[in-house]
Amino acid sequence: MGSLPKDVNEVVKRALQVSRGVSGFLGDNEARFLGTLAACAPAEGAIVEIGSYKGKSTVLLASVAAHYGMGPVVAIDPHTSPSITDPELAPGESSFDEFAGALRSAKLEEQVEVHRAFSREVAKGWNRPIRLLWIDGDHTYQGAKEDFELFSPYLSNGAVVAMHDVLHAYEGPIRVFVERILRSDRFGPAGFVQSVAWAQYRPDDGAKFREERERLARRAGRLVPFLVDSRPLHGLTKMRYKLARSRVPRGPISAAEWCALVARKAADQPAKPDQ
User: How far is CA 50 from the centre of its chain?
Assistant: First the structure.
């Protein structure tokens, strides 16, 4: 799309209302922001979701995409269990029936390209540009890294990568975001909204944003040593982790503010001192 749609706030609000009835772990501010990314990411290509669970974010994304005529959302999830990120499912159970039911109830079945498969299987035949890559699948380091590495080569210039649970106690999302995105000159503006981390793919001028990305990486990177193998945090260690997390800026951002942020050039905003 490339600019702020005049009706974006109303469109995202409606999508949020539709998705609220679907089981999932996406907070309202996170969902609102994800809808904004779907509506406003200034790039061409598909919206790709890795990790659908019961369809909460799928319904949200598909609702926005349907309104703006973007084509179907690509939803990738094997819908298997057990998984530490799907605690409601017992071993051997599947989330697929509820996922399909959520799309059916929202009348969005035609707006979603469903892949009941692991991301590595879908990646074997993938050749389409991507405008929004939403990663909310395997939260281990190897799993999150694989999801990013398999699909990030298809990002269009100006596209956005967003990852869920980056500020929750999982090793994979935070390490991939810090090590593969914030420390890469292929990316420009970046930030957090609650536990959603995002960055814009800017291969032509990403290096000009290196200083501000590195400031964010220093703060977010302090969380990584606490999360080796995503082991549960207890006692003093948990308190220290929460203190470090509190220093990562993660407040909500409006659609207008976000569009202005990604439209600017690096020189438009002076560097701030690290804290």
Answer: 9
Query: What's the pLDDT band for 88 if we cut at 50, 70, 90?
Result: low
Give the domain CATH number at 38.
3.40.50.150
Evaluate whether 127 touches 158 at the Cβ level (below 8 Å).
Answer: no
Query: Rounded to whole angstroms, what are the CA distances from 196 to 7, 165, 192, 193?
Result: 23, 6, 6, 5
> What pLDDT score does 92 carry?
62
Query: How many domains does the chain contain in total?
Result: 1
Amino acid found at 131: R
Q: Is the pLDDT of residue 222 over 50?
A: yes
| 53: in domain | yes
Q: How sure is the predictor about 275, in pLDDT bands with cuts at 50, 70 and 90?
A: very low
* DSSP per residue, 94-146: -SHHHHHHHHHHTT-GGGEEEE-S-HHHHHTT----EEEEEE-S--SHHHHHH
Give the rounded percent of residues in the chain with a pLDDT score beyond 70: 92
Q: Which two tokens stand for residue 51?
A: 């990790």
As given in the structure block, the two tokens for residue 85 are 């990120």
- Whether this model's pTM surpasses 0.85: yes
Cα 53 from Cα 80, distance rounded (Å): 9
Among 125, 134, 118, 121, residue whose Cα is nearest residue 80: 118
Whether 270 maps to a domain, the answer reads no
HEC secondary structure over 223-241: CHHHHHHHCCCCHHHHHHH
Nearest by Cα to 107 from 169, 193, 185, 21: 21
Tokens read off for 137: 């699948």
